[in-house]
Design brief:
Elements lengths: L1 H5 L1 H40 L11 H11 L16 E6 L2 E8 L6 E19 L4 E9 L11 E5 L8 E8 L4 E8 L5 E4 L5 E13 L2 E6 L4 E4 L2 E8 L3 E5 L5 E5 L5
Length: 259
């Protein structure tokens, strides 16, 4: 009895704590049961809700896939006027299509013209003690027509200007058989005489033809008007021509080999 009197409060507290533990356990079990019941009810409600959904209509998507997988034929020649525009002319009967291709499609190279540096020996000036050798220099490649005219340069043996140097004079001073020269820029040597000149190609010009018109002597940077469109010549080679459209698109025209 003395034990119960001394430990009465502890025994009561232990019983209360045990009751709380049992209640917590039973509450946890009940929560789990309630969750399972709600899940079962929700599943039954979803399954029993009317008929299943009809399948999606994918006909438009399938049509797009079919169209994308179909190989298309792109016509770039013949009567396709997007890539082969035709020229028109006005006559008494009205507008009619001109024969042949228009624009760049009808552009052809009639002739490629080499533009040379030409140096020729023309004679001797001065005295026998101080002869000066007269050389004619023609720069066909110059952009300005005035600079393409022949000019005369006069040099002593061993002297040079911005273009060339006379290295050696063979034969008589006043009537040489050969004059050996050298280009200052490239150090290229060549021989001049009364019968032999020096010729070196630096660029090209071209005679062109399109839409029944002739475009003679066209050079790099020259404009070229075809079917109302202004093109620019950006390069000329010995067998091709490159033109640039207003949108900067470049087209190469190959020269047709002579038959």
């Amino acid at each position: 009895m003395d034990f119960l009197k001394k430990h009465y409060e502890k025994l009561v507290l232990s019983v209360v704590l045990l009751g709380v533990a049992v209640a917590a356990f039973l509450l946890t079990v009940e929560v789990g049961n309630v969750k399972q019941t709600l899940a079962d009810q929700l599943q039954q409600k979803i399954v029993s809700k009317g008929a299943p959904l009809p399948p999606l209509n994918l006909s438009t998507n399938e049509a797009v896939v079919t169209r994308a997988s179909t190989q298309l034929k792109v016509v770039l020649d013949g009567e396709h006027n997007t890539f082969n525009p035709g020229a028109w002319e006005k006559s008494g009967e009205g507008l009619r299509r001109k024969p042949g291709k228009a624009g760049l499609a009808g552009l052809t190279i009639a002739r490629v013209i080499p533009l040379n540096l030409v140096i020729a020996f023309t004679g001797v000036a001065g005295t026998e003690e101080a002869p000066r050798y007269q050389l004619s220099v023609t720069r066909e490649f110059e952009k300005l027509p005035a600079k393409r005219r022949p000019t005369i340069t006069s040099l002593n043996a061993g002297a040079k200007d911005s273009l060339l140097q006379i290295i050696e004079v063979k034969g008589s001073k006043m009537d040489p058989t050969e004059i050996i020269c050298e280009l200052v820029e490239t150090r290229e040597r060549f021989v001049l005489s009364k019968e032999k000149s020096f010729r070196k190609t630096f660029s090209f010009a071209a005679d062109l033809r399109s839409e029944g018109k002739e475009f003679p002597g066209k050079r790099v940077d020259d404009p070229l008007v075809l079917s109302g469109v202004t093109y620019k010549i950006v390069a000329i080679g010995k067998d091709e021509l490159v033109v640039s459209a207003p949108n900067q698109v470049r087209t190469t025209i190959a020269a047709v080999p002579a038959q």
